[in-house]
Amino acid sequence: MKIKILDRYILKNHIGPYLFGLSIITFVFIMDFIFKYLDLFIGKGVRFLVVLEFFMLSLGHMFALIIPMAVMPATLMAFGQLAAENEITAMKANGISLYRMIVPVIVASACLSAGLVYYNNILLPESNHRLMNLMIDIGKMKPTLEIKENIVSDVVKGYTILIREKNDKTGEIKDIQIREKRRGGIPTFTIASGGRMSFNEENNTLRFELEEGEIHEMPDPNDITTYRRTSFKHFVLNIQDTDRSLKRSDRAYRGDREMSAGMMNDKIEKILGISGSVRKYMHNSAAKQYISAISLAEPGAESLMPQRLESPPVDSGVKPITEKRLGPRDAATQIMQLLEDGAKNIDSHRDQISKYGVEIHKKFSIPFSCIIFVLLGAPLAIRSGKKGMTMSIGFSILFFLVYYIFLISGEKLADRRFIVPWLSMWLPNIILSVTAGLLIHSTVREARTINWERFNFLKRLRRRR
């Protein structure tokens, strides 16, 4: 009974610090969100309810990081307070070890990890998918903001626009190329050295005021004599009926962060199947083409000539090999090109598999960090005692940086296939787990707290002098 009361007391001391840490970290993420997207929403004139929806969906991927980040400060504050009020000493005097003290917190963090796994695997992919759909729909609302420098844009139906330099505040543009698509005809090209771009919301018109340019057009695609080039000093192009109201859409395509672990495993199985088909196609086509070359060089071996070459697998990206009879040199060149294309295709498939593998393991490794941060925070808070609370929080920030640097670096290395996906995502947990184990073991064996004066090198140097 006394142990249960003690467990509830320890957990009660964690609830307040955890909510406090959660609110502070959430506030920091929200401020970053506001600074990042406020100008975008103001410029596009998005309604408040749409902005609110975008914000709520953005909280999805924020909480995937905020929830485990708040665990360690809560553990430091709770156990630090217990150590400052000598309650840790009282528990040790009654025969309660540190291992027993952290049991209720470990159980609570394990439940939090399990809930976070469900959240990352089921709820977060759907939230990310809806967020990406909404971002694309908002991006189509105002073409003057969607059209960016040095990027070919087709946000306006029937037109392809390329602008080298653009000022969003004044609307000034330089080095403009506009391609107007026409059904059954050759597109019209408009080129200008400079001008101004604006959007009239009343009549949904995108207006280009162009200076010093040319218009290239050929009204009759079957008669080259109809081609004409028109030079101008000032030309106004109005694109009518550019409806910029928010239109909802639902993409069938999903990125890796918009899929659950099951979806990504299905993708991996599909990619492995395509890679196997590519290998088979490369082997059979190269062998048949080689036999064809031999039969051409030796007329007596005409019976070895293959009847028909196979087609490459669907969605493989491999070009079909020619069915013409080639000489030994031409056949060898074509076979080498086939093997090179197939190798590039298989290498691309391996990159995709590695990318999906990283995202799968990330869904489990980040939630597991909740347990590790408890194992790190408890001994740090107890060993720091009354005077080392500030220093222990500094160490917690250091551990956060180490964890996420390892996480991001591991993701980059796994995407480039330098290390396997599971190791890239679990290596930070492994390193911090070993560190936490050493800290707990030394804290249980040593009764005294950390002497932070050992880290004050200037004071030690003065004493020696």
Structure report:
With 465 residues, the protein is of the alpha+beta class. It has three domains: 2-138 and 365-460, no CATH class; 157-239, no CATH class; 260-354, no CATH class. It has twelve helices and five strands. A hairpin with a 4-residue loop joins β3 and β4. The chain is extended, with a radius of gyration of 32 Å. The chain starts with a helix and ends with a helix. Residues 300-308 have low confidence and may be disordered.
Compile the SSE list and pairings:
Layout: H1 2-44, H2 48-69, H3 71-84, H4 87-93, H5 98-101, H6 103-139, H7 143-146, E1 159-166, E2 172-180, E3 188-200, E4 205-217, E5 228-239, H8 261-297, H9 328-384, H10 389-415, H11 421-445, H12 457-464
Antiparallel strand pairs: 1-2, 2-3, 3-4, 4-5
Helix pairs in contact: 1-2, 1-3, 1-6, 2-6, 2-9, 3-9, 3-10, 6-9, 8-9, 9-10, 9-11, 10-11
What is the overall silhouette?
A: extended
The number of distinct helices, counting runs of at least 4 residues, comes to 12
Mean model confidence by pLDDT: 78
Helix content: 55-70%
Number of strand elements: 5
Overall tally of domains: 3
Cα end-to-end separation: 57 Å
Trace the largest sheet across and list its strands.
Answer: 1-2-3-4-5
Rg calc: 32 Å
Helix/sheet category:
alpha+beta
The major pleated sheet works out as: 5 strands, antiparallel
Relative strand content: 5-15%
Which regions contain 5 or more consecutive residues with pLDDT less than 50? 300-308
SSE topology string = HHHHHHHEEEEEHHHHH
